Amino acid sequence: MERVLTAKGAATRQRIVEGAALLVRDRGVANVGLDDICASTATSKSQLFHYFPDGKADLMLAVVRYEAEQVITDQLPQLADLTTWRKWQAWRRRVIQIYDAQRAACPLRALTTQLGTADPATREVVDGLTDTWAAYLAAGVQALKDAGEIDPRIDVQKTANSILAAVTGGATLLQSTNRLSYLEDALTEALDNMRRPRNQYVAGGG
């Protein structure tokens, strides 16, 4: 059973998690020790173990959950309202802005590279993030389909998955090459592909 923290306790715990997340993004989990986290967050070892009884493993799982939340939160409110083509374009601009600003200091990179996904608990969080992200995108594709803006024969889930793959793949290449064009081109192409079936459908008269 999780302990119920006071407002002050919750704020302290959150400060530790956020401080640890920044260190992991910068150095990688293997190069971040408890002493580093304590120094960075002005926290004593006794405080740290009070909130994270299992030490680093416990804290790193909290960091994983925090970073997964950040990936989605950074895209809101645009991600939750993909109901028109104009709003899809606003979301595209937001995504590019986010990853251009973050570059290597990216929550997604921290999850997939720095923290790794070999641990079952981490994998569960990353899977949950992927499912949540894809669900938002699928809702947006369905909204365009219902509005008649894209071909009614389009596969909503496959389209959402391809857009998600464009973002994550483009972001990964951005982080490894420092070239934003990979993300810009991949996401633009994925969104354009979503609309192409309608043009062919109308032109063919079928």
Automatic annotation (TrEMBL):
Residues 10-70 form the HTH tetR-type domain. Keywords: DNA-binding, Transcription, Transcription regulation. Residues 33-52 bind DNA. It holds the Pfam family TetR_C_13. The keyword Transport does not apply. The keyword Lipid metabolism does not apply. This is TetR/AcrR family transcriptional regulator.
